[in-house]
What does this fold into?
Amino acid sequence: MATGLKFSLWVLPGLLLCLGIRPGAESGKVLVVPMEGSHWLSMRKVVQELRARGHQAVVLAPEVSMHMKEADFFTLRTYATPYTQEDYDQLMMGHTQMVFEEMHFLKIYFKSIAMLKTGFMLLQKSCAELLHNKELIRSLNASSFDVVLTDPIYPCGSLLAEYLSVPAVYFLRFIPCAWDFEGTQCPNPSSYIPRMLTRNSDHMTFLQRVKNMLYPLTLKYVCDISLSPYTRLASEILQREMSLVDIFSYASVWLFRGDFVMDYPRPIMPNMVFIGGINCAHRKPLSQVTLTFLVLPIKHTAL
It folds into this structure.
């Protein structure tokens, strides 16, 4: 990954554009709707940088969470969830345990689908609780936010932005099943863009190209059963027929945590900005123990 890209120079060019920032301009108000886990840990650095530049950030998070806690560089607002901390911890523990279990790949596949469906169902119910909270929505609307910064893997932020009629900026690595391509109306040629989990390179044989076209169909099924409840929620809240593409396409700017050093080159659209390297803003040297584990397999292969 390009380590020369400094966080302070590359962070949120699209978001600053949406805020209309220029020397001497007033600070903007940003509503942050994050996704749990490592998604939030990456976005947290961006929120901290926005605060350092004089902007106000309000992080909207569920009462039950793993990492989303109060900090001095943003205001935390929470909303009720239809599940308890114990339910949430059990779900997270199930995902962790499955990584270390040895089982047939078909069993892993179907178990993963079941867990994903359960996890996204909890998130969708949590989103419904948020969007039906009239008092909270009224308060957010009165706050007159300039932009909503959200991770689209959790579509609730996009729905909320459209419901409040506030521009949305997406901060993401990618969306499974090529929803990022469809949401931006970006060309997505299977002839040379390797699909996720295919292990193809950008130089493919004919059979690999066939695999590159067919493999995503399985993932499409997983995405549909995981995210389809949001289409019903969106249609109910926005009072018009909505599809997943409609939900994802609301963004004004897409900020991708990637670059063409680590990823294969691909077509892009004018509102797609690549900000790879910002997660490396605070690098630490590898410990001696880690270096030993990295070197041992190399020595063993050489022997």
